[in-house]
Specification:
heterodimer, A: mainly alpha
């Protein structure tokens, strides 16, 4: 069990997530383009999805969301849902292509980040919070998406490393067969 | 290899259900989760401190790029404002001291009665929905969840979970989850009115018609007498002025507080039921009118309507709702002040200034009006805050009064039980 934990993606994801959460709470809480907090944890979840597929994206989102909830104090599980959605959506749209170019991966990461950030007020409404929907979401979502897309050249390989996605897995099947 | 198989779909559904289960358990309150949060924050703290040090140059550069113009403008504006306020400060301090002395004299609760802890704001919310800041004081300084947090400008929020030994989080009053009981105080009280009171004193043996008995005619100046019926709601009270404020040594009706603490007629008018002055209840003599001395009373007429104050999230003004339906509702105007009401269950003590009404939304009668409030405190620029170590009366444990039993009483009790 210990071996599977070490060899699995959780240890890498947790250690990278810890650093990103520290950056989220320090640098990115202060550095607010257009008054919006850039969500780098969500960006990593979406990038993991874009690099590893829907299941790995959802798993990365779940783990990173749990860490976010524990560190930030939001209801435990709420960010797991939104980041899980972000990772899943990014992975799902990635399935239309094989081994996407960097710019396509950035686009998929942005789509996942948009789905995750747009899901935050929905989840909060289900939890019972009021006034979660506002016109400010039209500012928040594009900024979060843009930041995720900008970070994707770094985060997609990082997400693959965290989720232990091996290169043959994201090669075209024909190339994999030849190899 | 299929990217999306039924087995993988099951795994994703399992993750989703687990998240929902966690949310449900957490919202119901779970000690294990609280402990997990505390432990996780302890693990995160050194990483966060390192990140703070490493990223400080980036933060400073960002602030230099984005805030330089604003800071320069603000600096100039604050210098002008400071000069203008220096004179006001002297007067304000004298008034505060006088106010505190009056409150102490009347055994009334004042904000300065409660101990406070000053803390530095060390972090902001990393989410786009929550309006939360982090401070560098925690349970080691007796800070508990729910305590009010203020600045010299007014209320800024309350302490929210989790509270660690040296850190705590403060939910700002702009957060959508924030709520507190408040009262609305008119910004500009009506000017002092001259009240001329003349009492019809029936002479002994005169006959007075029903309804005319002991009638008191009141000339309230600009305040119509009919307004007296408008403030009889249980949620509406009138500010009181001590007896000697009239300078006559006689109690001005409605402007003095009875000894039992109940308020009199709230508008300062004389009751028309003949309860004051010689009533002439026998009603047997012809009446003669004896004018009483004209007194100038401080009829502040401060209607204090209580309501619920709720944050509306970033970018929106907080609102006051649940205002009771009384004719006095029509008095709300832009510029009215909002203070904490300090009710029995309120987490904040009374009379902390919150903000100024900037918009009155008149809704249907059943809904009542809705007030939009601009906070006095600049919630975007908080550097130091003060935590009021106040617990509401409903949460202060009652200390049982020790009963002293004398030997004689004990003997009597023993006899009573034995008999």
């Amino acid at each position: 069990m210990l071996a599977s934990l070490v060899q699995g993606p959780l240890l890498r994801l947790a250690s990278v997530g810890l650093v990103l959460l520290a950056l989220q709470r320090t640098l990115f809480s202060d550095l607010r383009p257009f008054g919006v907090v850039v969500q780098i944890m969500l960006a990593l979840a979406a990038a993991a999805g874009a690099g590893g597929g829907p299941q790995k994206g959802a798993l990365a989102g779940f783990v990173l969301g749990l860490m976010f909830d524990l560190g930030v104090g939001t209801p435990l599980g709420s960010s797991s849902i939104t980041m899980g959605i972000g990772g899943f959506v990014a992975g799902y749209v990635t399935s239309i292509t094989i081994d996407p170019q960097w710019w396509l991966a950035a686009l998929f990461t942005g789509v996942g980040a948009a789905a995750g950030e747009a899901g935050v007020p929905v989840v909060r409404s289900f939890i019972g919070e009021e006034s979660t929907f506002s016109t400010r979401m039209f500012t928040i979502v594009p900024v979060v998406v843009a930041a995720a897309m900008l970070a994707s050249p770094l985060f997609v390989p990082l997400g693959r490393w965290c989720m232990r996605v091996k290169r043959p897995e994201w090669k075209a099947p024909l190339e994999a067969a030849e190899a | 290899m299929a990217l999306y198989t039924p087995g993988r779909r099951r795994a994703i559904i399992l993750l989703l259900l687990t998240s929902i289960l966690l949310v449900t358990l957490d919202l119901r309150g779970n000690a294990i989760f609280d402990a997990a949060r505390t432990g996780f924050n302890k693990v995160l703290e050194p990483v966060e401190n390192a990140a703070e040090v490493v990223t400080r140059p980036v933060q400073n550069a960002w602030r230099g790029i984005t805030n330089y113009e604003d800071v320069a403008d603000e600096n100039r504006r604050l210098r002008d404002q400071l000069e203008a306020q220096q004179a006001d400060q002297v007067v304000a301090e004298a008034v505060i001291v006088e106010n505190q002395e009056l409150l102490a004299l009347n055994n009334l609760e004042a904000l300065s009665d409660f101990p406070t802890v000053v803390a530095t704001v060390v972090g902001q919310s990393p989410t786009n929905l929550d309006q939360i800041i982090e401070i560098n004081k925690g349970s080691d300084d007796d800070i508990e969840v729910g305590m009010a947090v203020v600045t010299p400008a007014g209320l800024v929020g309350k302490v929210t979970a989790p509270v660690s030994a040296d850190r705590a989080r403060v939910m700002l009053i702009s957060d959508a989850r924030y709520a507190v009981d408040v009262k609305i105080v008119p910004a500009v009280p009506p000017p002092p009115t001259t009240t001329t009171t003349s009492t019809t004193i029936p002479e002994f043996g005169a006959t007075v018609a029903p309804g005319d008995s002991g009638s008191v005619s009141v000339d309230s100046g600009s305040s119509p007498v009919s307004s007296s019926s408008s403030t009889t709601s249980t949620t509406t009270t009138s500010s009181s002025v001590p007896e000697d404020a009239t300078g006559t040594g006689t109690s001005a009706p409605g402007t003095s507080t009875p000894a039992d603490g109940s308020t009199g007629p709230p508008d300062g008018s004389t009751p028309v039921d003949g309860s004051t002055g010689p009533s002439g209840s026998d009603g047997s003599a012809p009446a003669t009118t004896a004018p009483l001395p004209t007194t100038t009373t401080l009829d502040l007429n401060l209607v204090r309507e209580t309501g619920g104050f709720n944050g509306q999230g970033d970018g929106s003004f907080p609102q006051v709702d649940f205002l009771s339906q009384t004719p006095a509702v029509g008095r709300f105007e832009d510029g009215d002040y909002v203070f904490t009401s300090g009710s029995e269950d309120s987490l904040a003590p009374a009379n902390i200034p919150i903000g100024r009404v900037v918009n009155v939304v008149n809704r249907s009668t059943s809904e009542g009006p809705l007030l939009e409030v601009e906070p006095f405190a600049d919630l975007d620029r908080l550097y130091f805050v003060r935590i009021v170590l106040y617990k509401p009366r409903s949460e202060v444990p009652l200390v049982p009064t020790p009963t002293t039993t004398t030997p004689a009483d004990a003997g009597a009790e023993a006899e009573g039980t034995g008999g």
